[in-house]
Specification:
alpha/beta; 17 helices; single chain; Cytochrome Bc1 Complex, Chain C; binds protoporphyrin IX containing FE; elongated; two-stranded antiparallel ribbon
């Protein structure tokens, strides 16, 4: 599994790098697959409401009402019908890519198992919604779906009677059709909303909407597609005729040919096997977990910045329990913590100039890499640097390959996430003899821990607490954001930064 994931990650990073060049980091669709899916659901909902107004929910009228939309009122109802279909297809594509991406980026194991696990039934729910939608057109394709679905249901030993027999005998009633309409219009959508809510319930500050330009671009593309290739029906359903040529929507209906070729038993077996495998993936093998962040109450002022910055809502603020003058204190929910250390970067108490002669403690930090470790390692790395100018590179362990800096004569301190760096640490490094500091991390818009580089950029820009001291010479700090494939570019930046310092000879802070 590790080999597949690592190879997949290389491909994902390469494709995303290409898209970054075309769209820029902010508009790269791969960084917005979840929110794009939500957006397509909105298009499906709005177009679906319009289509429903013109739709007749009975056997006799369904087909004609859909045909009317496509042929007579093609300029509005027809486009709405096509939008409904194509936005559904677009959603299944983004869901699939989202799933593959979360797997390749190793976002599906450990604490993150929950989002993965709940994503699997969500995917099936979307597929069932699509299938029930095709059923409602009541054309030859719907007839094929109805009969094959009945075959699938009949295969289950616990279901009494034969559904297929009803179809073959032409015994499909309006009540049955209304049941399908109810499932498509209300039952399944409500279940989907509930599943989606569960899916994202352990993630904080979710972008439910993609960037505006991406949203408009996708909508325009779908409208153009609807005009160029409008969604059409097959001939009307005739239960006494077998459909001959069918144009399947492979995004939603791929299981049906399986039933035809292999039979219902095999189709059930494959679908259940794939589902069980997907559900079990977070534990095949499980991710080695690091100890979670801990609150050090005596150093927590209850400012709440860590709770605002935590990407997984693992920190909440509660009333003070230790009788100190502050109103609140941070409280940790271990099962949500990914051990990224972003909370240490948020904490004012992680300031390395504090407690100069004692062990430094932040209000919240990981027991295996706390504020004291950040300070101590920086000091050790700088003391060991013999070459001039003295440059220290802070590296995020999930981004670049820092071995490319070997032999360059700079110090490298690797941290779990760039968001773990309190800005005061950079000033501290400069005060302790560094001539320059390089802060690196994942590509912009694609932090392994969701918000680490976003917060770091905002902190260094002074738009988010805690920010750099006013006295810090910003010219001595450079940033680089990239994935492994951009390691050489980072090396070039570090090299030219050092050369620049040599030439300009910036004085020590
Ligand atoms: C059905 C439609 C789906 C929608 C609308 C959706 C939406 C989202 C959104 C908005 C996020 C938060 C992303 C962020 O802000 O960082 C997310 C996270 C996630 N999704 Fe989905 N998702 C869907 C299906 C799936 C499926 C089928 C899977 C996999 C089986 C999946 C796996 C995950 C995982 C693992 C995360 C957590 C990522 C992290 O912890 O950084 N999702 N999803």
């Amino acid at each position: 599994m590790n080999i597949i994931r690592n190879s997949g990650n290389k491909i994902v990073l390469a494709v995303e790098q290409l898209f970054n060049k075309i769209f820029g980091n902010q508009l790269n669709p791969f960084y917005h697959l979840g929110s794009l899916t939500f957006y397509f659901f909105w298009i499906v909902l709005v177009s679906g409401i319009y289509v429903f107004i013109a739709f007749e929910t009975n056997l006799a009228g369904a087909y004609n009402s859909v045909e009317y939309m496509t042929n007579e009122q093609w300029w509005l109802a027809g486009i709405m019908r096509s939008l409904h279909r194509y936005a559904s297809d677009a959603a299944i594509i983004t869901i699939f890519l989202h799933m593959v991406r979360e797997f390749c980026r190793d976002h599906y194991r450990g604490v993150r198992w929950f989002s993965w696990f709940t994503g699997v039934p969500t995917l099936w729910m979307v597929v069932m919604l699509g299938i029930s939608g095709y059923w409602l057109v009541w054309d030859m394709l719907a007839q094929y779906i109805a009969i094959t679905t009945a075959e699938l249901i009949d295969w289950i030993p616990m279901v009494p009677g034969s559904m297929v027999f009803n179809f073959l005998e032409g015994n499909v009633s309006d009540r049955f059709f209304t049941l399908m309409a109810f499932l498509h219009l209300l039952g399944l959508p409500v279940a989907l909303v509930f599943l989606l809510w569960t899916h994202v319930s352990r993630i904080s500050q979710i972008d439910f909407y993609p960037p505006r330009l991406l949203a408009w671009g996708s909508l325009i593309a779908l409208i153009l597609l609807s005009l160029i290739k409008p969604a059409v029906s097959h001939g009307p359903a005739q239960l006494d005729h077998s459909p001959t040529v069918l144009h399947l929507d492979w995004f939603y209906l791929n299981i049906y040919p399986l039933v035809d070729i292999l039979g219902a038993g095999w189709a059930w077996g494959i679908a259940s096997g794939v589902t069980l495998f997907l559900l079990a993936m977070p534990w095949l093998p499980p991710r080695g977990e690091k100890p979670r962040a801990e609150v050090n109450l005596e150093h927590c002022s209850g400012c709440g910045q860590c709770a605002q910055d935590c990407p997984y809502g693992a920190i909440t603020m509660q009333r003070r329990t230790d009788g100190r003058k502050f109103e609140f204190e941070s409280s940790m929910e271990d099962s949500l913590c990914t051990s990224c250390g972003i909370c240490t970067g948020s904490c004012a108490s992680a300031n390395p100039f504090r407690m100069a002669k004692e062990v430094l403690k932040a209000g919240i930090e990981m027991p295996w890499y706390g504020a004291e470790d950040l300070r101590r390692i920086t000091q050790e790395k700088l003391s060991a640097l013999t070459t001039q100018p003295r440059v220290i590179v802070y590296g995020c362990e999930n981004s670049l390959d820092f071995s490319v800096l070997d032999g360059l004569g700079c110090a490298v301190q690797v941290v779990p996430c760039s968001g773990m760096l309190p800005p005061s640490l950079l000033d501290f490094a400069l005060k302790r003899g560094a001539d320059g500091v390089v802060v690196t991390g994942c590509r912009e818009g694609d932090c392994f821990h969701r918000f680490g580089n976003r917060w770091t950029i905002a902190r260094l820009d002074g738009t988010r607490e805690p920010h750099l001291f006013a006295r810090t010479d910003q010219r001595k700090i450079v940033r680089f954001w990239g994935g492994r494939s951009e390691s050489q570019e980072m090396q070039a930046l570090v090299r030219s930064f050092r050369d620049g310092i040599k030439k300009e000879g910036l004085p020590h802070a």
